[in-house]
UniProtKB/TrEMBL annotation:
PANTHER family: SHIKIMATE TRANSPORTER. The keyword Chaperone does not apply. CDD domains: MFS_ShiA_like (cd17369). It holds the Pfam family Sugar_tr. Gene3D superfamilies: MFS general substrate transporter like domains (1.20.1250.20). The keyword Transmembrane helix applies. This is MFS transporter. It is found in: Cell membrane. PROSITE patterns: MFS. Residues 20-430 form the Major facilitator superfamily (MFS) profile domain.
Length: 452
C-alpha cells in the first residue's frame, strides 16, 4: 500500500536546524539546572533544614523521597503537556515549561524552614517539587520533537542529542554552583546559603524565554496540521496506534535510574559517616563526569546516525549496569582517585551512550501528530520509577545506609528492561522523517501510513 504524499508545506529557513538545537541545548541546560540543584540540596541540605534532624537516617530518607515526588508528578504533566504540544505546537510548550520551572524553583528558595513553621515546611517543599516535575515532563519531549523535526536527513541523532547534552550542561552548572555553597560555614549554609542557587532561577527563566520565543515552529508539525489537521485527542490515537512503542519507551526510560542513583544516592552515601568523603570532592566527581558527558553525548549520537540507534543504546544500558557497580565499590573504599576515575567512566562515558541516543530513538518511534505525547508519556512514566529508585536504594542500603553492593545490583536490574526494549524495537535511523511512525504490512514492501 503506497504512502500518501505529504504536502510540501513550509520549508525550514536556512540555519533553523542549528538554531533549534541551540535553543534546545540552552533551554534544557537552564531548565535542568533548576531541577538538579534540588537533587544536590536533597542529599546535602534538606534533611537538616526541612526534616527532623534528631533522626538523621529518617530525615535523609524523607528528603530523598521528596526528590522522587517530582518524578511521580511527571506522568500527569506528560499527559497534559503532551496533549497540548501535539495540538498547539512544540514552541508554546517549550516556553511554558521553562517559565514554570523558573517560578517553582525560585519559590523553593523562599520557603520557611521546619524551625520556623514546623510540619508545614516539608508540605510546601513537596508542592514546589510537584510543579518542577510537571515542568520537566514537557521540557525534554517538546525540545526533542522540535530538534528532531528540524534536523536534516541522516543527522537526527546528532541534532536531537543537544537536548540531552544541554541537560548534562544544566547538571554541571548546578554542581558548580553548589560547590562554593557547600563549602560555606555550616551555620551560614543552613540559614541562608542554600537558598542562593534557587534564587538564581529568575535569571534562568529570563534567558531561556528570550532564546525560545524567537524559535520557529517545525515544518513537520506545520505540514501535518495543514494536511490532516491535528489530532483532537492525541492520547487516544497514541494508545490505539503506538501502544507497543509507548511500552518500549517506558522500559527504556528506566535507564535513567543510573543518573538518579549516581547524582543523589551515591552523593549522600559518600558523604555519610559510613564513608566520610567530603561534600566538595564528591561534587567535583559529578562536575568532571558531566564535562566528559558533554563531549561523549554528541559523539555517541553521531555514531548512532551511522550504525543505528539500537546498538548504541544497548552499549550504554548494559555498560552502565557494570560500571555503576565499579563506581559504588570505589566510593565504598573511600579512595578519591578510584572514585573520580570510575565516576567519569560510568556516568561521563558509558551512560552517555544511552543518554545521548534516546532522544532520537524514542522520537522516531512515533508519527508527527502524536510524537510529543508519545515521548512525554513514555519517558515520564519510566522516569517516575527512576526517580523513586533513589528512595528504594536508601531502603535497600540497610539501617546503616552502607550496603552499596545491594544498591549496585538493584541498579543493574533496572538496566535490563531498557536492553530488552531496545533489542525489540525497530531500527529507524535511515527512515525519512515524514515516514516515521508508519507500519509495514505483511507482504508489503512499503510502509502504510498510520492514520487517526
Amino acid at each position: 500500500m503506497s504512502v500518501p504524499a505529504m504536502p510540501s508545506g513550509p520549508a525550514a529557513p536556512p540555519g533553523q536546524p542549528r538554531k533549534a538545537a541551540t535553543a534546545a541545548w540552552i533551554g534544557s541546560a537552564l531548565e535542568y539546572y533548576d531541577f538538579f540543584i534540588y537533587g544536590s540540596a536533597a542529599a546535602l541540605i534538606f534533611p537538616e533544614v526541612f526534616f527532623d534532624e534528631s533522626d538523621p537516617a529518617t530525615a535523609t530518607l524523607l528528603s530523598l523521597a521528596t526528590f522522587g515526588v517530582a518524578y511521580a508528578a511527571r506522568p500527569v504533566g506528560a499527559l497534559v503537556l503532551g496533549h497540548f504540544g501535539d495540538k498547539l505546537g512544540r514552541k508554546k510548550i517549550m516556553v511554558f515549561t521553562l517559565m514554570l520551572m523558573g517560578l517553582s524553583t525560585f519559590l523553593i528558595g523562599c520557603l520557611p524552614t521546619r524551625d520556623q513553621v514546623g510540619g508545614l515546611a516539608p508540605v510546601l517543599l513537596v508542592l514546589c517539587r510537584v510543579l518542577q516535575g510537571i515542568s520537566a515532563a514537557g521540557e525534554q519531549a517538546s525540545a526533542n520533537s522540535m530538534t528532531l523535526e528540524h534536523a536534516p536527513p541522516g543527522r537526527r541523532g546528532f541534532f536531537t542529542s543537544f537536548t540531552l547534552s544541554g541537560t548534562q550542561g544544566g547538571q554541571l552548572l548546578a554542581t558548580l554552583v553548589f560547590i562554593p555553597v557547600a563549602a560555606m560555614p555550616e551555620d551560614q549554609l543552613l540559614s541562608w546559603g542554600w537558598r542562593l542557587p534557587f534564587w538564581l532561577s529568575v535569571a534562568v527563566a529570563v534567558v531561556g524565554w528570550v532564546i525560545r520565543r524567537k524559535l520557529d515552529e517545525t515544518p513537520a508539525f506545520a505540514r501535518q496540521a495543514a494536511a490532516d489537521g491535528v489530532a483532537r485527542m492525541p492520547l487516544v490515537v497514541l494508545l490505539r496506534e503506538h501502544w507497543a512503542d509507548v511500552l518500549r519507551v517506558i522500559a527504556g526510560a528506566l535507564v535513567a535510574s543510573v543518573s538518579t542513583i549516581f547524582t543523589v544516592w551515591a552523593l549522600a552515601y559518600a558523604t555519610s559517616d559510613a564513608v566520610g568523603m567530603s561534600r566538595t570532592a564528591m561534587l567535583w566527581v559529578g562536575a568532571l563526569a558531566n564535562v566528559v558527558a558533554l563531549a561523549a553525548i554528541p559523539l555517541w549520537a553521531t555514531l548512532s546516525d551511522r550504525i543505528g540507534r539500537r546498538p548504541v543504546f544497548v552499549i550504554g544500558a548494559a555498560g552502565s549496569a557494570v560500571t555503576m557497580f565499579l563506581y559504588l565499590w570505589a566510593v565504598s573504599t573511600g579512595s578519591y582517585p578510584l572514585t573520580f576515575l570510575t565516576g567519569i567512566v560510568c556516568f561521563g562515558a558509558v551512560y552517555s551512550a544511552a543518554n545521548g541516543v534516546w532522544p532520537a530513538f524514542y522520537g522516531e518511534m512515533f508519527a508527527t501528530r502524536v510524537r510529543l505525547s508519545g515521548v512525554a508519556v513514555g519517558t515520564q512514566i519510566g522516569f517516575a520509577a527512576a526517580g523513586f529508585a533513589v528512595t528504594f536504594a536508601a531502603q535497600i542500603a540497610g539501617p546503616g545506609g552502607d550496603d552499596w553492593s545491594a544498591v549496585a545490583l538493584f541498579t543493574a536490574a533496572l538496566c535490563v528492561p531498557p536492553v530488552i526494549a531496545a533489542v525489540s524495537a525497530r531500527e529507524t535511523h535511515r527512515v525519512p522523517t515524514e515516514s516515521l511512525g508508519e507500519r509495514v504490512q505483511p507482504g508489503s514492501a512499503r510502509p502504510e501510513k498510520v492514520t487517526a
